[in-house]
Amino acid sequence: MLLTLAIREVLPATPRARIIRLELGGAVFDYTAGQAVLVGATGGPKRPYSVAASPEESRRERRLELLVGVDAHGIPGTHLTLARGHVVDVEGPLGTFTFPPAPAERRFVFIAGGTGIAPLRAMLHHALAIPHEQIGLLYSARTPDEFAYEEELHALARGGRIELRQTVTRTVGDGWGGARGRIGRAELQPLVHNPATLCFICGPPALVAEMSALLAELGIERSRIRVEEWG
Question: Rounded distance, CA 165 to CA 34, Å?
Answer without folding.
Answer: 21
